[in-house]
Write a structure and sequence with these properties.
The protein has 322 residues and is mainly β. It has one domain (5-321): Distorted Sandwich (Beta-galactosidase, Chain A, domain 5), CATH 2.70.98. The chain is 3% helix and 41% strand. The protein has one helix spanning 212-220; strands at residues 5-9, 13-18, 23-29, 34-35, 55-57, 63-64, 68-71, 74-77, 86-87, 100-104, 108-115, 126-135, 138-147, 151-152, 156-158, 174-178, 182-186, 192-198, 210-211, 232-236, 244-250, 255-261, 265-269, 287-291, 306-307, 313-321. Strands 10-11-12-13-26-22-21-16-19 form a 9-stranded antiparallel β-sheet. A 5-stranded antiparallel β-sheet has the order 18-17-20-23-24, with no helix packed on it. A 4-stranded antiparallel β-sheet has the order 1-2-3-4, with no helix packed on it. The two termini are 36 Å apart. 45% of the residues are buried.
Amino acid sequence: MKVKSSIIQNKYLRVQTLNYGASLYEVFHKNKKINLILDLGSKKNYRFKHASVGSTCGRYAGRISNSKFQISKKQYILSSNEGKNTLHGGKTGFSKLPWKKIKQTKDKIVYQLYSPDNDQGFPGNLIVNCTYQVKNKFLHIKYEYRSDKKTHVNLTNHSYWNLERNKKNMIYNHDLKLNSNKYLQVNKNLIPTGNFKSVKESIFDFLKFQNIGKKLSFFKNKKIETKHKGFDTTYIVKKNSRNFIGSLKNNKSQIQVDFFSNLPAVQLYSAQNLNYKKKLFPYHGICLETQYFPDAPNKKNFPSTLIKANKRYTCFTKIMIN
């Protein structure tokens, strides 16, 4: 199937989407004349393997340990694509598939994907709608999904944000604030241990705006011991009436992007492993993936991602661009 692009816009924003992966290709700030996310260059590249750039990740965003889980004492074996674990839904996750465009207006587009029973090992025939809509200075992302069997679902958008005109400056000049005072402890394979850790007096503290470049220098200088030279960290969102997740800003472009969601966590990924055809490089963008916790199907103390048969579920993320 061909890669097909669509555009929705208003006087503040122009958003270009692609059917492959129900991906964001461009989030264009009309006043500043800057595209705020990374892309793969040619749209044809979205048909082939890439680092989920701008894509919808599913059935399960993040990692599932040992590529398996149980539902009602029945064990399901999943597609492994990161060692013995499953990442972003398996070898052929939602980010790699063509979605069907089922509706479009000037400011709204809806994509749909049908995922059959046993797709990558997951039970249930699952139908997912992904809606992008621009309203004033907001980009709304909404997922609606339903399965005919109990199954686990965790969906997120995997855009790499870079708010500068010159993307080669990487993300070092960006400042980040997160509405979170706890993060998930992980093992050497980035699988959660089940323990929650306080951000207080640690490298993981973004309760106030912090310069990302300064934070990353800790990893580079080996001032803290880690196998991974950057953030790939799940932050637990503090509940609040506005559903506020966090803010990313760049003082050079004077652009700030605020994230809001009804999901319980946000995955901060500083793109330390990003590398694509001499176009995209480590630390080139930053991901703020609103989602449920990784490995929740195997962790009883995590918010559940189990959905019941024939019931409609929704989640949303709103992104305000100033």
